[in-house]
Amino acid sequence: MATFPTISELRAQFLLEYESQIGQSAPLNNKALLRIKAKVMAGIATLMQREVQTNTKENLAISASRAGLITIGNEYDLPIKDEQAAIVDATLPATTGTVIPAGTNFSGDDNGLLYYNAAPITAAADVATLELTCRTLGVVGNLNVSQTLTISRNIAGLLSLTATVTGTDTAGADAEDTEDYRQRVLDIIRAPGGGGNSADYRNWAQEAANVVRAFPYSGLPWDDPLAPGEPPERTVYIEADTDIDPDGIPDAPTLAAALASIETDPITGQDRQPLGLTSDTLYVEPIRRTSFYMLITNAVFVAGTDAQVKADIATALDQYFLGLAPFVAGLDADADRNDMITSVSVGEIVQGVLAANSASADRVQFGDGVGVYLDNYQLGQGEKAKNGGITYA
């Protein structure tokens, strides 16, 4: 990154320029005109530099603040994802003809949040079928099937005060994280879509609530007996926000939202898939998260530091494995490829932490199972990694 002169350096430069123009040195007195002028000009120049730095930073997606990034994203017709309320389907026992007035509150028995029905509901066959919207935005409003809610008032004709969730109509979502949004903006800048190419499928899927990353491939899912398959078969693996699952495994509503976003433009309602392609050959699948296990042999620590150093090693390996991602040929840049795990790379992570703490180990091994050690491992389609555990021997 370019660096700018400090205010002191600028003041000296201005003073030197003024002195050279009159052919003499300015006196050291604090009231010397040229010194005052140089100081003022240095302050003005510093403000201008800061403005240049800010404008340059805000004009680049890689460095813009959240506000600047939103401006850039809007230029590409890619708005940031706002908070979204959960809407769940539920049933409430009530005699036929009983009316549940619009705006009736229900309290979630597990999360204590309030939900309401936007329109009046009339019970049929002794059941009121409800669509309840959470009054609190975000993932906190999401409920699972069979969870219950309690109606806030006793209406004549109710057979129970407890409603039971039968499904999710719309998954609640938090406002999009700045760095997740930055990645989406960079994706659309670096790999423009068009004609239903792989970039289109990534961008479309990533527009859905709670979707952090999408990995589109041509062919069948990796575990299909007929894999790898061929066009027009397409598989898009979905990674969800960690608020949905710590490992980023999407739930059913998130997968459904991703599929809907791929199939239909949420703004225009128009079909997005190119002519001739149907959902029969489109597979929207969750990512898989593979655990990797380490064996560190003959580790030697400075007395009293072993617990902290082991914790630091675990943290470093967590970050390393979470930073890996499957590679999509023809879409991802080769320079960004980061899908290969090797005994050397894992060893460098561990040995670096050990060396920084005056500790050592004879050997570091890794594998995708306890007691199974490998020289290298390449992540497959839709496969991500995590630290499964460390054994010291």
Detailed description of the structure:
This protein has 393 residues and is an alpha+beta fold. The chain folds into 4 domains: 52 residues; 84 residues, Beta Barrel (Elongation Factor Tu (Ef-tu), domain 3); 96 residues; 103 residues, no CATH class. It has 8 helices and 17 strands. The strands form 5 sheets. The protein has a 6-stranded antiparallel beta barrel. A 4-stranded mixed sheet has the order 15-14-12-17.
Measured distance between first and last alpha carbons:
45 Å
Shape: extended
| Strand order within the widest beta sheet | 1-6-4-3-7-8
Q: What does the radius of gyration come to?
A: 29 Å
**What is the strand content?**
15-25%
Structural domains: how many: 4
Query: What pattern of helices and strands is seen along the backbone?
Result: HHHEEEEEEEEHHEEHEEHEHEEEE
- Structure class: alpha+beta
Biggest sheet details: 6 strands, antiparallel, barrel
The total strand number stands at: 17
Number of helices: 8
Mean pLDDT: 92
Which stretches are low in confidence, meaning pLDDT under 50 for 5 or more residues running?
none
The level of helicity is 25-40%
